[in-house]
Each structure stands twice: as C-alpha cells, then as structure tokens.
Amino acid sequence: MIEARHLRVLRAVAATGSFSAAARELGCTQPAVSQQMKALESSAGTPLLIRTGREMRLTQAGEALVRHASGILAGLTAAEEEVAAIAGLRAGRVRLVSFPSGSSTLVPTALAALRAAHPGTRVSLVEAEPPRSVEMLRDGDCDVALAFRYGAGPAEWDDLVVRPLLADRLVGLVPEAHRLADAESVGIAELAEESWIAGCPRCRRQLVEVCEEAGFTPRIDFATDDYPAVVGLVGAGLGVAVLPELAIESVRPKGARTVAVEPAVEREIVALTLPDLAQVPAVAATLDELSRAATRA
Q: Burial, 24: exposed, middle or buried (Cβ in 10 Å; 0-12, 13-18, 19+)?
C-alpha cells in the first residue's frame, strides 16, 4: 500500500536529486530516506529511481507517481485541515429533528447558544413527532432527535444514546368561564362529561389511557396536531384539553385557563443520538446546549 509519507519523500528526492539532499529538506537521516524509498518501490512493485552518478533519476513509473503525488498530498492536507476544523468545532454540521413544542421552546435557546459559542457549526432543523423522529435517527436522516415518551417502553431506545432533558407535566386547559377555571387542581374524572379537544396522536392516546384509568372514555370532538389551535378552540369555549406545559409555554392562552390535573402525568423529554455520533464534537456540543436550555426552562 502506498503511504502519504512515502510520497512526500519521493517528491523531495525528485526535487533535490539525491537521498542526502532530500534528507536535509525533510529533516531526517539519509538512511531513513533510503529505507522509505525501498518500501515505496516494494509497494509499487517496480523501480522508481535510478542512480546516475551522484544523482537519482526517476523511472517512468517514478515520474507518473510524482505527477500524481502533488494532487494526492494537497487533497490529504485539505482533508486533514477540514477534519481538524470539525474536531475543533470551527466547522461541522448537525441535522436536528424535533417535535413542534420542543422546536418553539428548547431548540431556539440551545441553537442560539451553540451559534454564539461555535459560529462555524451549522445546524439544520426539521419537525417530526416520535416515533417518526426516532426512525429518522436510526435511518441516518438526522444526527440528533428531540423526542418524548410517556413511560419507558421495554428496550425502546436501548440502541441509542439517551440524554434526559426534563419531565414535562400535563396540565388541564379550560375556558375562562368554565366552572373549574379557578380551581387549584382538578381530578381528571371531574371532566368526564366534557367535550374534549385532543392534540398529537401520541398525546391523544395518552389522554384516552389516563381517562380510562379514571373510569371514563373522553368524547373527543376536535383533534389537531397544532397546539395553538387546541388553545384557540378551548378559549372559544368549545371544550377542554390536557396539554404538556411545554406546549402551552410558547402560546398565549387567550380565553383559556390552565389548571393542575390529578393524577399527575408527565412525559419525559430527551435528546437522542447514535452511539458513534455521540463522539462527534458538534453533536456532543448540541446535546450539551439542549441540556442547558432544558435546565433554564
């Protein structure tokens, strides 16, 4: 196998005309130059140099190798510099996928801090709810997935690096004129006869499970993945809802009131990546900034 160090020596020999002069240029000994040239000729399978008097002359194969050496070494130098920039966070790219309420709360704070600390690192963002976001991570379509779950599934994320961020409690949302609008907390069973407005499919399933555990099945009149739409429907007096606090944080609940709901239900917010990606400096920095954003939240 032809090695880059051998090409550098060959190029020096070709430029200076001798092993001793090449050794002086490279800052090594003449025997070291001779040894590396023997190794290169062995790899090439043909002579590359011919001694003529006190000078070394390139064979046709040697001339061909020197002709390509400059481009190879220049490309290698550029690659080394680019890798060093990525390792030093002077460059790099992170593809982030997040669910909507995370995109509007945790992500802006984290990415602003990342840009301030490492302006050469570029981050792209697309939105997807779990489990789709987790599938994207496993399929190689993103580097970090901001996700959530209600209770740990059996071995659900065992193949991933899981960075816990925060526990996001579900809260009730009722119209301002509702009979329970001023209550400090509300038992979920007290809302059994209400019209319900449900959020994303995963949150919808969780709502049904919580209500069924309390002894009733909620009558869901409206369902939307758009949290501001949920808040607007509640504010218009069209029903009640249960939403994560993170979802309400970025929405002004006009015409609606939030109330604590019992029994307490929380969803776990996490940042996920693959084990190999966790070692990439830009990915590790993104995870760190998401953790800091969650702490501030």
A: middle
